[in-house]
Amino acid sequence: MNTITPVDTVSFDGREVSLLDQTLLPGQQVRLIIEDAAQMHEAIGMLRVRGAPAIGVAAAFGLWLGVRGLSDDLPRPEAEAKVEETRTYLAGARPTAVNLSWALDRCAAQALATGSSTAQLKQALLDAAIQLRTDEEATTRLIGEHGADLLTGLSGVLTHCNAGSAATVGLGTALAPIYVASERGQALRVFADETRPLLQGARITAWELREAGVPVTVITDSMAAVVMRQGLVGAVIVGCDRVAANGDVANKIGTYGVALLARAHGLPFYVAGPTSTIDLGTPDGDHIEIEQRGAHEVTHHGGVLMAPDGVDVFNPAFDVTPAEYVTAIITEKGIIYPPYGPGLQAVKA
Ligand SMILES: CSC[C@@H](O)[C@@H](O)C(=O)COP(=O)(O)O
C-alpha cells in the first residue's frame, strides 16, 4: 500500500490557523479558521479538535493567536503577562490530557527566553507552535515504526476511540503502528469500538482507516468480548491521554473495560503515545483528573432524546487502566515493558 497521508487536523498556512471540525465527521469535512484564543478554547472544549497530541498543537497555536494582536510597541512585561494569562486560559480547556499543558508550557518557555521585544515574543510563539507541529508529526512516525514490530503476524487488532491521525498531527498513536504495518504490506483488519457516547471510533477511526485503505470493521462497545472470544483479534492497541509515573493510563472512557477483556482472553493490551503524554508528576491513576462532560452527550443522539428527560447521568470522558493490565507502552523512543517506573523515567530523562 502507499504511504499514508495524515489527516490535516491543525495547520498554519503562513497566514491563518485552521482546524478540521471533527464534530462533523464523517459526513462533512469542514475547515474552521481560528482567529483568537477564545475560539481555540471553544474548539478544544467542544472536541472540534480532539485527541491528546492534537489538542496540544492546537493550544500552541492558540497561545500565539492570543497575543498576535498586541502592539509591537507594548512593553515586553505586559506582553509576557498576556502570554501567561492566555496559557492558563487555554490549559483549562480540558483537564485530562497532559499534552495540552505540556505543549503550552514548552512553547511559552521557548518564547519567553527569546529576544527582549514584544515583536520578538510574538514571532517566537509562532515559531514554537510550528516547530511543535513538525516534531509531533515525526514522533508519530517513530511510534508507528516501533509499534508495528509488535503487530507482526497478526491479522486483526481491536482499538477503542480514535487515537489515529485525526487525534494527532501525524499518523496517530494507536493507529500509527497499524498504518506502518499496512505500509509494510501486512494485511491487518482493525475492529473499531464505536466508543460511546460521542462515537469517535465509528465516526473518526472508521473514516480515517477507510480513507487510508486499511480494512476496518465497526462494532458497538458491547461486542468487543465476542470479537475476542471468536479469535478475530490478536491484540488490543489504544492511545492515552496521560500516563502516570507508575504506568497507570488514562484514556477514553471504556478503555479500562477493554483492558479487562483483553486480560480475560489472554490478549496483549498495548498503549501507544508520545513521551509528552507521560506525566512523572502524577504518581498514579488516582491522581489523574478525569474530565466530566455534559449529560446531553449521553441522553441525546443526533439531537434526539434517548433517555428520560432530566434523568441523572454519569459521563466521565476518560477512565484509568491500572498498569498491571498494560502489556507494553509504545513511545517514539521505544517500547517500555513492566515494571513501568524505571522505563518511564528513562524515556523522560
Ligand atoms: C492519540 S489520541 C489518545 C487519546 O487522546 C484518545 O485515545 C482519546 O481518548 C481521545 O479522547 P477525545 O475525548 O476524543 O479527545
UniProtKB/TrEMBL annotation:
Which residues are responsible for catalysis?
241
This chain's protein is named Methylthioribose-1-phosphate isomerase
| Keyword Nucleotide-binding included in the entry's annotation | no
Gene Ontology BP, a term = L-methionine salvage from methylthioadenosine
Designated gene of the protein: mtnA
- Which lineage ranks, top first, belong to the organism behind this chain? Bacteria, Thermotogati, Deinococcota, Deinococci, Deinococcales
Give the species this sequence originates from. Answer: Deinococcus detaillensis
Q: Where is this site: Transition state stabilizer?
A: 161
Task: Write down the EC number.
Answer: 5.3.1.23
The entry assigns this protein to a family as follows:
Belongs to the EIF-2B alpha/beta/delta subunits family. MtnA subfamily.
Q: Which reaction(s) are listed as its catalytic activity? A: 5-(methylsulfanyl)-alpha-D-ribose 1-phosphate = 5-(methylsulfanyl)-D-ribulose 1-phosphate
